TrEMBL record:
One of its GO terms (molecular function) is antioxidant activity. InterPro entries: AhpC/TSA, Thioredoxin-like_sf, Thioredoxin_domain, Thioredoxin_ResA/DsbE_sf. It comes from the Bacteria. PANTHER family: PROTEIN DIPZ, THIOL:DISULFIDE INTERCHANGE PROTEIN DSBE. It holds the Pfam family AhpC-TSA. The lineage of its organism: Bacteria, Bacillati, Bacillota, Bacilli, Bacillales. Keywords: Disulfide bond. This is Thioredoxin domain-containing protein. Residues 3-161 form the Thioredoxin domain. The keyword Acetylation does not apply.
Length: 164
């Protein structure tokens, strides 16, 4: 599934790693939303990337961009990882794969042609404006080659500078 730029994003409600309810609809109108889908707490590439998001968080906050991470991993492992790495942005749990499916994020199932740490969602990135419309999207089928915070800093600035 590919969304058109300026198309309204699907709204969702998920629990964060502390069991608190996160409603995307309540975040709309409070800055841009950057949704970062990652594989799981077991993924070394993901953990490195999440640390980088935390390190770059102040840039995104200054530019009115709110980071939210989402994984299909289990809540206990995600909570432990978020605490260990001192993540201050929301880390949400999508064990039922509802949001993953609504956003067309790739899912590495047991039917995949190669083994890769069992079933899990793959990396994806969605940047939404203050009205919940898509400004940017990126999906992939493996852990490598994903845009990191440095690349998305450039994307945010480019979009900000060129908004109509």
């Amino acid at each position: 599934m590919v969304f058109a730029i300026n198309e309204k994003a699907p709204m969702f409600t998920l629990a964060d790693v502390h069991g608190e309810e996160f409603k995307l609809e309540e975040k709309i109108g409070k800055g841009w939303q950057l949704l970062v889908f990652f594989r799981g707490s077991w993924c070394p590439v993901c953990k490195e990337e999440l640390q980088a998001w935390e390190e770059h968080r102040s840039f995104f906050e200054k530019n009115n961009v709110n980071i939210t991470a989402i994984s299909t991993d289990n809540p206990e492992d995600l909570r432990t990882m978020a605490e260990e790495y001192g993540l201050t942005f929301p880390v949400l749990v999508d064990e039922a794969l509802k949001v993953l499916d609504d956003y067309g994020v790739f899912y590495h199932s047991s039917e995949a042609p190669y083994e890769d740490h069992g079933a899990h969602g793959e990396p994806a990135y969605f940047l939404l404006d203050e009205e919940g419309r898509f400004l940017y999207q990126h999906r992939q089928t493996n852990p490598f080659g994903r845009p990191g915070p440095k690349e998305l800093r450039k994307t945010v600035k480019y979009i900000e500078d060129n908004l109509k």
